[in-house]
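Curious: explain these tokens?
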Amino acid sequence: MLSKKNQKGFSFIEMMIVVVIIGVMATLAVGKFDKFFRQQRLKSAGRDLLSDLRLARSYAISGRAQYGIYFDQNARQYVLFKDVVNPSNYTYDVGDSVVKTISLSSIFSLNNCTFPNTAVVYLSTGSASSSGTVDIYNAELAKYVRTDVLASTGRVRLTQS
């Protein structure tokens, strides 16, 4: 018979303890990763809006025409458009040329839009019709990303809560 000092290996109970510890750690990690990925989706939505605002400004400068973004808070979408119907009003009107419509995921909402008529229009000089902000909000995280537009230069800035 072999003595216990010469036996090598793990007992079943030791292996089960290690498996339970790994399971608990994996469960905790999944929760952290899920929150991390939701935060990244919110940041991504904010960066997409930032890019579309810059695109509207670029179109206005290069095309020597007014382009803007209309924020439809109820439908959770925004519309990049060429302002052709009534350019002096700086609004999105029926008949304006739609370049693209962006719908947000159902987990996001557009909040706190401070632009007059919920639209910002870029002039051919690159300046904006007015200064203002709009938030993309995620209720699950209770966090938002805010996009600020400065009227005099048309510059856009993104901040996070």
Observations:
- The longest helix spans residues 12-63.
- Residues 13-160 form a domain with the minor pseudopilin epsh fold fold (CATH 3.55.40.10).
- DSSP finds one helix and eight strands in the chain.
- The CA atoms of residues 22 and 83 lie 59 Å apart.
